[in-house]
Amino acid sequence: MADDGESLESWLNKATNPSNRQEDWEYIMGFCDQINKELEGPQISVRLLAHKIQSPQEWEAIQALTTLEACMKNCGQRFHNEVGKFRFLNELIKVVSPKVSNSALW
């Protein structure tokens, strides 16, 4: 069983580990639970997810998107508010259009 004392970063690293053979739902849901426990959980987790989604390792990025989806379903309004901010959306735009610079977006 996962350790409840782990940091958001630790949970996400385990949930998106490129050596995982399939999604590790224990760590994905542990990450969601940790977001809900921490005062700054939504802000921190969105930054961490944005970084993982941009990973050059495709499997790590896909697992990060699966984790993002789980967070959208399980982490409530505070998380949704962070995901809806331009800062996060701009990070996602980089994934689909890597050549776009931040200054050119808005």
Automatic annotation (TrEMBL):
InterPro entries reported in the protein's UniProt record: ENTH_VHS, GGA1-3, VHS_dom
Listed Pfam families: VHS
A GO term for molecular function: small GTPase binding
GO terms of biological process kind: Golgi to plasma membrane transport; intracellular protein transport; protein localization to cell surface
Organism listed in the record: Sphaeramia orbicularis
Coiled-coil segments: none
Transmembrane segments: none
Protein's name in the database: VHS domain-containing protein
Domain of life: Eukaryota
Entry GO terms, CC: trans-Golgi network
The VHS domain, residue ranges: 15-106
